[in-house]
């Protein structure tokens, strides 16, 4: 933000990011990933205060955590400071913060040695105060020990006065920043308006038009995704992101734009390294900061590594965009470790996540249009490795409703429901069955959540209760699909781990063929 | 294994564990977790060979990974060695391995600097050889460059002779070990038989009887789980494990047994630290080693952190046991970040994972009995924080079938299906509806996968197709349940994130009451 907006003599972005973390945080792998990348990027404005009390829930850190954390952070390229008496020495902490700020080319870790439950005679320094209250007697003993003479909920006057100093200090800081911004506005009115726009999370007029040319294309949805990303990058300067070391597979590079590196913070192409969970956490932080519209990418199956971050996107109500390619067994040779089976189902089961699996160019455009416009729910966009046809019946407007009729049939005998690459199979199967005299409707259902957002009348129109003969086709687990196919329907999916073989062979051997869709439909029709 | 079986003068367990890893591995958080714990545990027999070629899929590690890996490992307490010329200097690698073995109280990392695609004139040292073949011309150029005069698939005589030396060397080692073991057998026949038993993965006679007393108990299923774990520990010396810093919440401590620490490798209580993904990976390694039957524990919602490891348990066909407590919103105050919603569904969607959510003591015993006996599929056992009743209709034998009738009704008007803590609600609702003259059957379905393993006739007997009025109750997402309730049924679940409040209040506010089950059933009955 500073690299983009600040001008000589006008520093409107100039703040620090503080992290407060404990022993448990330093044991979690996601922290290692983020910390390593922060060191690489020389994030001098990142300051972490490590409350090192040597206690986690089970007891002393001697049980499981005896590494030298400071040395580890130094190995990551951080500036490390120690405050040995963090219980009482506020001056030492303030001094360390000043030293941290003085080092501008490295993030800083303050290892602050503290006592958990400081002041409690019986429980200080023990896991007993980690998650449970002290209890009445120990509260009394702690008050005595700390010479705290006040009754519960009494705030002493001098403490109140001290805290209230923050009001004036905050007002001053705000006034100063407002003056800075006013100067910026006068000198750079367009940039100031843009700054206000992105900080408010408003999209520019007519941004969606940039996606229009993509609707005509015909290639794999990951390449269509690349076209969308690059089209959006042109009209949304706040749009930025990257891949967890799979840029050339995920097709996520914003062409002609610099990388985000220590020497180029204006860059918009992020290199997250092989750090999926860290990437997800960083995307959440960027989105919560404001002024940025971030995306991150990896293979769909590796959503597992960062599921906790995707869940937090949803819980935190931020519209992070997850670009997930290689979305089925058709990725082929990499085999079962890389082939998603349950991945899409487990993301659909998660509240407030838009899981979108477009079938072609028009639906890919719709997926991005929704993901960009939706700023409260994260989107997981699932793209193929293999090429797909741009199908006649699809539409941007239809796909935006999550589910819609692609091949119409009044009073259908059968409804075929499909997503992504399987929509083509469904339309071909429908053509064969129609020739046999059946009234077969095809419904594309790229995003269940958007479909469920629609009024009941619309959903009934697309999937009328009167037609119970239904077949769903998706190259993933059948889990969850019975909601739409009901008791009399069938699901063509894959409920076992995949196999290593060329993609088209996997596809055929696991039953994703027009013939199998037709045969299953005939069975359901009875 | 060495601490358990070796005797003075009889070293039957005496091998090293080697890891080969690359730059990408060192970026992943799971490696940080495992490496930190290995350092803490002073695993002197663990030797990691780090193929440091400074290339990952996207290009040079300069893009995203510039930390000092060796220094980081030293911070974890590892012994770190450098081999600067790993392309050709085999003697230096052998020498480093010897040095690694000489340090017995630390795991060793050999940082071996190499060139990816060594020998290829145009592609050596570049990401172009990471995942793609060299191509015909470059293969020819590489052969020339390396003075490799042989045709494709020709193995030169001297290379063959060199490799074949391994046959004699291996035979010698085997003969030596067999002699050692014969001596052990003569001196310690019982221990030798026990060693052979655990290495073959055979369970002792009558082990399941140890669980019998638990069937009479009445408390939270996490406490019932504790009783099972401790009962099993008494009869299965190979059974061991621990928690990711939640031993007192997960109730997983094996009482009276020592901890597994650097000073007590005979211990069976593991302290994994706040390292869920690392824990899962370590459990897989232990299970694949053989001779051990490992379990690991955390809160159910944190399955997200180690989902990739659970998936690998299934793919690797190892019966790792995941003990997951606090299995619903009823955990209460910790709130939405700790309350599983989609967790059970996403594990059920994963192939070859037994997800078991027992309702009471008998079903908890069944869950453990199956998890122990099943050595090819991992089990995820889901336990309550809150107390549960030991219900009259439940049985160990029934629960082992995954789904079974708990409250019978011939030709039922309605079937209520429930798992875990909600089974009590279902039985109470059934009693009320029965009084109203309805024939209501209650089916307990603790483990879908075991139910699906049963013959079709049994499944039809439990859930007859003729009865389409069905209501499922589970304190988690409704996702997936339509498979069993069909088009005319209903699911009582929770399809949003939870809330922070005392457990019973969460339970009631989200509709998990007998009244709501009865009302929903009446609606379904029409």
Written overview of the protein:
Chain A is an alpha/beta fold. In chain A, 40% of the residues lie in helices and 14% in strands. The first copy, chain A, is built from 21 helices and 17 strands. Chain A has helices at residues 2-5, 23-27, 29-40, 69-75, 90-102, 136-145, 157-187, 189-200, 221-235, 247-250, 276-289, 307-315, 343-348, 361-373, 396-400, 422-435, 448-453, 456-462, 482-485, 503-509, 514-525; strands at 17-21, 46-52, 55-56, 59-60, 79-83, 108-113, 239-243, 269-271, 293-299, 321-325, 354-356, 379-382, 404-407, 414-418, 440-444, 470-473, 490-492. In chain A, the strands form four sheets. In chain A, strands 8-7-9-10-12-11 form a six-stranded parallel beta sheet, with helices on both faces. A five-stranded mixed beta sheet of chain A has the order 13-15-14-16-17. In chain A, strand 7 (239-243), helix 10 (247-250) and strand 8 form a beta-alpha-beta unit. The first copy, chain A, starts with a helix and ends with a helix. The mean pLDDT of chain A is 97.
